[in-house]
């Protein structure tokens, strides 16, 4: 099969590309970074260097493909995150229609069933809705849960304060996911010739914050590490004092409140998938290496 991968060779794109190439598929990887060209070609794929904002480039890249993996790469420099998602969703729609590609696998997120109140994830909702309007395609939305590597953002707090503190914590539960497990599911979906699932949830493990903290703590030599729920105004002040934009602070707090209330997980709880291979204890070793490297 001829398959197109967007998102370059990131945390998901790299293992996904390797798996598809190993299975003998013809792969084109789209990247906005010219410096990735050599690495892409070294893997055995074709590099398509261009911008996702360029619909003519997308269309040209998609033409002749049997399947395409669509994702919206994070870009926190965008002044309006939701509009950024909406724009790329429309670009993907136009390119898919004009190129006549039929199999589309979209990297979305858990919580994307909700139109608002989920911070950055509301952008994924809008992309899903846009892609759903494309006629005569086989479309699957992948909804992974809380990425393990998001935990890395707490390293400075652990080092300075000795604990993890957010607007969610303690007994709040987090379904966690490894990019490697996302890549494995995406690889299978892109070549699926049987029944197509419109939505697939992906998770690797599930723990409460009270359970996550000591696993990470033991790995870094802080077995008493705690994850506490802090008041909204304290977290808001700390985020603003760190120099983050009002847009980013607003979205990250909204997302945290959706986790704390359980709202983000409502649909996931009705569709809990078979867990992936990478468990929290395994990821904790990677977390430890990066903790001590910083």
What does the model show?
The chain is an alpha/beta fold. The protein folds into two domains: 2-146 and 178-202, NAD(P)-binding Rossmann-like Domain (Rossmann fold), CATH 3.40.50.720; 205-293, no CATH class. The chain has twelve helices and twelve strands. The N and C termini lie far apart (42 Å).
Number of helices, where a helix is a run of at least 4 consecutive DSSP H or I residues: 12
Q: Find the CATH topology of the largest domain.
A: Rossmann fold
- Radius of gyration from the alpha-carbon trace, in angstroms: 19 Å
Q: How many strand units?
A: 12
Distance between the termini: 42 Å
Can you give the helix content as a percent range?
40-55%
Q: What is the number of domains?
A: 2
Largest sheet: 7 strands, parallel
Q: What is the fourth-level CATH superfamily of the largest domain? A: NAD(P)-binding Rossmann-like Domain
In terms of per-residue confidence, which ranges show pLDDT below 50 for 5 or more consecutive residues? Answer: none
Mean pLDDT: 96
Strand order of the largest sheet: 3-2-1-4-5-6-10
């Amino acid at each position: 099969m001829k398959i197109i991968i967007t998102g370059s060779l990131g945390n998901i794109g790299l293992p996904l590309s390797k798996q598809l190439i190993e299975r003998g598929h013809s792969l084109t990887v789209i990247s906005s970074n010219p410096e990735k060209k050599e690495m892409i070609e070294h893997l055995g794929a074709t590099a398509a260097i261009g911008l996702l904002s360029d619909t003519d480039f997308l269309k040209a890249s998609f033409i002749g493909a049997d399947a395409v993996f669509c994702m919206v790469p994070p870009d926190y420099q965008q002044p309006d995150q939701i509009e950024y998602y909406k724009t790329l969703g429309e670009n993907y729609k136009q390119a898919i229609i004009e190129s006549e590609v039929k199999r589309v696998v979209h990297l979305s997120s858990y919580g994307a069933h909700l139109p608002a109140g989920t911070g950055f994830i509301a952008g994924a909702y809008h992309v899903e809705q846009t892609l759903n309007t494309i006629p005569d395609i086989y479309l699957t939305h992948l909804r992974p849960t809380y990425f393990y590597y998001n935990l890395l953002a707490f390293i400075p707090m652990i080092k300075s304060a000795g604990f993890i503190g957010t607007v969610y914590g303690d007994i709040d539960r987090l379904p966690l996911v490894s990019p490697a497990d996302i890549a494995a599911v995406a690889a299978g979906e892109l070549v699926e010739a049987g029944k197509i699932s419109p939505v697939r949830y992906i998770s690797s493990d599930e723990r409460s914050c009270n359970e996550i903290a000591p696993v990470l703590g033991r790995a870094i030599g802080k077995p008493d590490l705690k994850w506490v729920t802090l008041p909204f105004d304290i977290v808001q002040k700390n985020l603003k004092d760190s120099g983050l934009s009002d847009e980013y602070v607003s979205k990250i707090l909204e997302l945290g409140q959706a986790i704390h209330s359980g709202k983000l997980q409502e649909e996931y709880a009705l569709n809990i998938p078979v867990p992936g291979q990478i468990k929290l204890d395994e990821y904790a070793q990677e977390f430890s290496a990066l903790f001590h490297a910083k």
